[in-house]
Amino acid sequence: MPTAAGRSTTGRSTTSRRTTSVRTDRAALPTEEAAHYTGLSYGTLKKWRVTGDGPAYVRIGSRVVYLIDDLDTWLREHRVA
């Protein structure tokens, strides 16, 4: 039975833990999906991250995501008329 402080009689918290995460359903894509979205290969995007070329990306710990707005901007800027 929880106490008023949100702890059970065993001393463990009964309140749920809040976690934050990047919304990746529409706002951002992992590298594999960004490659498909742009028509580039996974390896090309990975290489360009090392050389500083390619679209902007976001690193969250060891995870890399590409914001769709950044991909669209990069594609527009590299359009050949």
TrEMBL record:
Q: Where is the composition biased (Low complexity)?
A: 1-22
Q: Where does the source fall among the domains of life?
A: Bacteria
Record-annotated Helix-turn-helix domain positions:
31-79
As given in the record, the signal peptide range reads none
User: Which InterPro entries did the record assign?
Assistant: DNA-bd_dom_put_sf, HTH_17
Q: Where is this region: Disordered?
A: 1-27
- This protein is called what? Helix-turn-helix domain-containing protein
Protein's organism: Nocardiopsis alborubida
